[in-house]
Write a structure and sequence with these properties.
alpha/beta; eight-stranded parallel beta barrel; 9 helices; globular
Length: about 270
């Protein structure tokens, strides 16, 4: 099985896509995971292809109410899928939408996927329908074919634990995960400040167990290509900063390259 590693545009916003692609290529990534306006999706893929890189695109939806959100989600997915990325990673729904409303959005994604042939995955993420491990289980019942982007750092944060008491929930989620975000969370936050630091070893080890199981599941299934995005976020916001300065306590770029290299060595 080939494992391809992706770099997010998140944190590289100061660069043009052309500049970002060059930087990412030199660093040894296979592609980029890009959040961009749907009408610029085709342009993003063209730039990536010119540098021999694959493209994962993102979709979000939005609006002041559910009908607006659903209409934008559908329109965005259709525009993005038309550009033929290797997959679309979605921040789908809201934690405050009803189960039925979130199911409508999931069905929209299935319909677009069936029409275009582009895989559409739903990221496990705070604030979305996948905001926690137990909440997501209900959707596996309604949609047995539901596929996820496994970013379990969010579930660690929401549950304020390393999910040791949710083994069955995690096992089911792992079986539904087709793409990995390798950010490491901790019980009080979605991102440790530096996964290289020894004080975070227990958190890193917990995430490695889940990622190992996803990789092994796909190897047993005969999956040809599995994708992983190094998705530690930038400062200020995700990456912690020093008080009064907004200076990051570590380098987001260096951390993401480290995580990419760690898993590349581990799995390849």
């Amino acid at each position: 099985m080939l494992i391809k590693f992706f770099c997010p545009t998140w944190g590289l916003e100061a660069l043009s896509l052309e500049e970002a692609a060059k930087k990412v290529k030199v660093a040894g990534y296979d592609g980029m995971e890009i959040a961009t306006a749907p009408d610029k999706a085709a342009e993003a893929i063209t730039v990536m292809k010119s540098h021999g890189l694959d493209t994962i695109l993102m979709a979000f939806g939005g609006g002041n109410n559910f009908p607006e959100h659903k209409a934008k989600y559908k329109a965005d997915l259709e525009k993005i899928a038309a550009s033929k990325p290797i997959l679309i990673n979605c921040h789908t729904g809201k934690d405050y939408f009803s189960h039925e409303q979130n199911c409508e959005l999931i069905q929209v994604a299935f319909d677009v996927q069936q029409k275009t042939g582009v895989p559409i995955l739903h990221e496990t993420h705070r604030g979305r329908f996948t905001y926690s491990a137990p909440a997501t289980q209900h959707y596996f019942v309604t949609f047995p074919e539901l596929r996820l982007t496994g970013d379990f750092s969010h579930w660690v944060n929401v549950s304020e634990s390393l999910l040791n008491d949710q083994v069955e929930n995690m096992e089911r989620a792992i079986k539904h995960a087709d793409h990995i975000h390798n950010r490491v969370g901790h019980p009080e936050g979605p991102q440790v400040n530096d996964p290289r630091a020894p004080e975070w070893k227990s958190c890193v080890d917990a995430h490695l167990v889940w990622w190992d199981k996803i990789v092994e599941t796909h190897r047993k299934k005969g999956t040809k290509v599995l994708t992983i995005t190094s998705e530690f976020g930038p400062a200020p916001g995700y990456l912690q900063t020093l008080p009064y300065t907004n200076l990051p306590v570590a380098s987001q770029w260096d951390i993401n390259v480290y995580m990419k290299d760690l898993l590349k060595e581990r799995y390849q």
